[in-house]
Automatic annotation (TrEMBL):
GO biological process entries: regulation of translational initiation
Ranges of residues in domain Impact N-terminal: 19-124
Cellular component annotations (GO), alphabetically ordered: cytoplasm
Provenance organism: Nosocomiicoccus ampullae
Similarity annotation: Belongs to the IMPACT family.
Gene3D superfamilies from the UniProt entry: 3.30.70.240, Impact, N-terminal domain
Protein name, per record: YigZ family protein
Length: 211
């Protein structure tokens, strides 16, 4: 079974003020590194008058691509803190840009790290998180005699019926969580005395909101 994958739910922005500096944080779902770069460029164009537009992103299911940019802030005080928030939240395919308008008061290295971390964390909080669940499309064919028991089982297991067709037998198009496929087959064997047919298709990824 594949590792749990989290991504941001909404593309949104937040704003905080720290010692007269304004930090505007943007978060977006980015499926590829090109998407991430395009998003960063869009924010930089939007805030051409900003003092800094610092950013970080993680791309790929195994966090294969990780990038951070201080955009002129002291090295390690902006991009890396943003990236650390993404890593802590286990977010993949997500980009954050934190725009700073300098207010005249220097924050120091520690203050900058806290400010950019806070900005990124606020954006993640406002966006929310989703996780991806591997689902298996399946078609089940069985006799009418077994429909009541089978449908009761599906209801108890919260397995979605996408479609039903009635001919000489009953056909169910299902979408089954990957970890439940074996239990569905096992239950069908018990219910039908192994007189059913079940075919499966390639895995699909479904989003679920993290509560």
């Amino acid at each position: 079974m594949m590792e749990q994958i989290y991504m941001n739910k909404l593309d949104t922005s937040t704003e905080i003020d720290i010692k007269r500096s304004t930090f505007i944080s943007y978060i977006a779902r980015t499926e590829t590194e090109d998407d991430a770069k395009e998003f960063i460029d869009t924010i930089k164009e939007k805030h051409r008058d900003a003092t800094h537009n610092c950013s970080a992103y993680i791309i790929g299911e195994n966090a294969l691509i990780q990038r951070a940019d201080d955009d002129g802030e002291p090295q390690g005080t902006a991009g890396i803190p943003i990236l650390e928030v993404l890593k802590r939240e286990e977010l993949y395919n997500t980009t954050v840009v934190v725009t700073r308008y300098f207010g005249g008061i220097k924050l120091g290295a520690g203050g900058l790290i806290r400010a950019y971390s806070s900005g990124a964390a606020e954006a993640v909080k406002a966006s929310g998180k989703v996780y991806l669940v591997p689902m298996i499309p399946a078609t089940v064919l069985l006799d009418y005699t077994f429909t009541s028991r089978f449908e009761y089982f599906l209801e108890q297991e919260n397995i979605e019926i996408r479609n039903q067709q009635y001919t000489d037998k009953v056909s169910y198009d299902l979408i089954i969580p990957e970890e439940k496929v074996e239990s569905v087959e096992s239950e069908l064997q018990k219910i039908t005395s192994d007189t059913f047919t079940m075919t499966t298709s390639e895995v699909e990824m479904a989003e679920r909101t993290l509560v």
